[in-house]
């Protein structure tokens, strides 16, 4: 029997409780991690990015943590707000096609 491919696994610690958990790292996590990296590189909080792109900080947090699916409108607005030159839109498109 052939071995099944395995997805990368990430380990995290919940910031409030300290609980350890593992999750599969997939395309949604990749988008969220890049969104967080760009946001933090601009010194923006979730609240300030949310105000700039008209999405709630709660939704943005879920996207950054791979628990909510981003959409093309969010990617385009975040590209504009973060000066990402279409990087998030391109990344989202890659997650949808492959």
Automatic annotation (TrEMBL):
Recorded hits in Gene3D superfamilies, A to Z, give: lambda repressor-like DNA-binding domains (1.10.260.40)
Recorded hits in InterPro entries, A to Z, give:
Cro/C1-type_HTH, Lambda_DNA-bd_dom_sf
Domain of life, per UniProt, equals Bacteria
> Where's the HTH cro/C1-type domain?
35-88
Q: Where is this region: Disordered?
A: 1-21
Q: Name one Pfam family in it.
A: HTH_31
Question: What molecular functions are annotated in GO for this chain?
Answer: DNA binding
SMART domains noted in UniProt: HTH_XRE (SM00530)
Family annotation (SUPFAM superfamilies): lambda repressor-like DNA-binding domains
Record's protein name: HTH cro/C1-type domain-containing protein
Q: Which organism is it from?
A: Actinokineospora fastidiosa
> Lineage of the native species?
Bacteria, Bacillati, Actinomycetota, Actinomycetes, Pseudonocardiales
């Amino acid at each position: 029997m052939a071995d099944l491919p395995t997805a990368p696994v990430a380990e995290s610690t919940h910031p409030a409780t300290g609980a350890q958990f593992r999750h599969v790292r997939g395309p949604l996590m990749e988008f969220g991690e890049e969104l967080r990296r760009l946001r933090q590189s601009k010194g923006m909080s979730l609240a300030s990015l949310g105000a700039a792109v008209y999405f709630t900080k709660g939704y943005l947090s879920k996207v950054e943590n791979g628990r909510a699916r981003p959409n093309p409108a969010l990617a385009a607005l975040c590209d504009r707000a973060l000066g990402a030159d279409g990087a998030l839109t391109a990344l989202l498109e890659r997650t949808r096609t492959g």
